[in-house]
Amino acid sequence: MEKGNVLVIGNSGVGKSTLINAVLGEEVAKTGWGTQGTTKELKIYEARNAEIPFNVIDSVGFEPGFLKEMEAIHAVKKWSKECAKKGNENNQICVLWFCVDGTSSKLFSNTIQNFARAASMWKSVPIIVVITKSYSIPEREQNIKLVREAFKKQPKLEERLKGIIPVVASPFVLNENAFASPDGITELVDLTNALMPEGKKAAKNDLTAFILNRKRFLAQTVITTATAAGATVGAVPIPFPDAVLLTPTEIAEVSAIAKIYEIDKNEESKPFLDSMIKTGTVSIAARSIIAALKAVPGIRIGASVLNAVIAGVIVALLGEGAAYAYEQVYLGNKTIKDIDWAAKMVETKFSASLLEKAGNALAKLSDSADIASILTVIADLVSGNKSLSESKADQ
């Protein structure tokens, strides 16, 4: 980003649009009176003044009422998520201006919570609290103290708080003999400029983390779906160790996860993808798991249920290993040429350590166990079982 972006956020009527106009030096944002906001959607404004090397984003104000608050929060969240799409990276938020009203003697906790929820994607971006309408100089220190006390109750926000600046964005007539002149704008601009390099780096990291978490969630969804399919296929009355019925499910699972992590299926990536499949049902490691699970003492469930568990465990372990391998490639820590590393890493997923809890887990099942019960046991057995269970619950 040549220019960073500043998001202006706060209650309706706090003076966000007036502040933007004062900073940019021109009437670009529509202003109004009262507590009902004039901004209905987020809009980005680019400064024409070379001394303002950042863009400013006006946001929907928080208005009284649950639905109105949710509308404003959703608008910011939607903008933030759009930044994760290709071509929208330059819209990411690098500095947050949290505007509070200097004429009020209170800073309600729900106002800060709304701010935190709206900007939740930007977890490390610097925050500047702008105390708008700071007409009374004697009250400024009191308002600054008010803000600091409020942020002390929000430690994660407090550590990102880089400044509290009282401002008067436009001249305000106090009486026929006096008026409050614009103040604090230069200080606000200077601090924002100073924070921008840090903010750009933080925004990039936050965006990367969001995209990565999204990919992890999607990968877990694929793993859960494939595990259920594998368990269903596995519940067959034929000798499971000799069957290759899981191979189509495994291929579909590995291919889907590869696509999530943007690994194209071509001649160059084929050996890497194939190495994943070979660690599935047909591998020696997988067959050792099959034999060990079948030999767990004291288990009194039928072959069909046990086969379903075994099949599900293999598919789940393969998916977990493939997801980790592809994520490392996506992050640039590995390449699709690291075939031996990938194969060995996935094989380690087929560790005998899960056998230590196999007895207790399998004891929860009966011959009449349904697929939900079987998946719960599989989740207990598989490394990363929490995410597997949560993904199933979200479906």
Determine the structural class based on helices, strands and strand pairing. alpha/beta
Mean pLDDT: 83
Succession of helices and strands:
EHEEHEHEHHEEEHHHHHHHHH
**What's the main sheet like?**
6 strands, mixed
What's the gyration radius in Å?
28 Å
Number of strands: 8
Main sheet: strand order: 2-3-1-4-5-6
What number of structural domains do the residues give?
A: 2
Low-confidence spans: 32-39, 384-395
How much β-strand is present in the residues? 5-15%
Secondary structure layout plus pairing:
Blueprint: E1 4-10, H1 16-24, E2 43-46, E3 54-58, H2 66-82, E4 95-101, H3 109-118, E5 127-132, H4 137-152, H5 155-158, E6 161-166, E7 172-175, E8 178-180, H6 185-234, H7 247-260, H8 270-277, H9 284-294, H10 303-331, H11 339-349, H12 358-362, H13 371-381, H14 385-394
Parallel strand pairs: 1-3, 1-4, 4-5, 5-6
Antiparallel strand pairs: 2-3, 7-8
Q: What is the gist of this entry?
A:
It contains 14 helices and eight strands. The chain has 395 residues and is α/β, with parallel strands linked by helices.
